[in-house]
Amino acid sequence: MADTCVSKYCNAGWVEVLSHMSPYGYANFGVAFGLGLSVVGAAWGIWLTGSSLVGAAVKAPRIRSKNLISVIFCEATAIYGVIMAIILTNKIKTPEKATFYLDNDWDWNGFYYAGYGMFSAGLSVGLTNIASGVSVGIAGSSCAIADAQDSSLFVKILIVEIFASALGIFGIIVGIIQSNACTFPIAALQ
């Protein structure tokens, strides 16, 4: 390491990078992670369910239409991410005075609290929707294979799939609770 950066624009490490990032950046990353990870969870679940559905439908073509409910449950996890992204995006407000520097009496604690809170809300929704999408996909895959063998098993396994889908609902509820107190200040403290 002969060429160490000595300029004032160099970062000492990741701690400095993350601690100097704008709260707006954290809030927008929360929106991105909530939406992006929810879509990944939905895609993963659809991949798991769809591949088993197509394979089992070769043996029993009657299962094709009624087992599409599993794909719909997987798609719901992406919709939960979209809902949370809309909620979080509506909470991101710019200051009243758009200047390069904020006032000295600016509510810095509220500013950072809002950014970190929205990041954690988006991340928790995204991660629970990955878990929900995968679990719904596995349950849907089992449902398609079991239904191809014995049609009386469809409703029994569908109930398990509904419980797996509830993970996504729990995630969005937790995300809404986390983001309730997150409001960006728009003016200096009075």
TrEMBL record:
Its main location: membrane. Keywords: Hydrogen ion transport, Ion transport, Membrane, Transmembrane, Transmembrane helix, Transport. It comes from Trieres chinensis (Marine centric diatom). It is a multi-pass membrane protein. The keyword Ion transport applies. GO terms for cellular component: proton-transporting V-type ATPase, V0 domain. InterPro entries: ATPase_proteolipid_c-like_dom, ATPase_proteolipid_csu, F/V-ATP_Csub_sf. It comes from the Eukaryota. Gene3D superfamilies: lithium bound rotor ring of v- atpase (1.20.120.610). Signal peptide: none annotated. GO terms for molecular function: proton-transporting ATPase activity, rotational mechanism. The keyword rRNA processing does not apply. This is V-ATPase proteolipid subunit C-like domain-containing protein. CDD domains: ATP-synt_Vo_c_ATP6F_rpt1, ATP-synt_Vo_c_ATP6F_rpt2. The chain crosses the membrane at residues 26-47, 68-90, 110-132, 153-177.
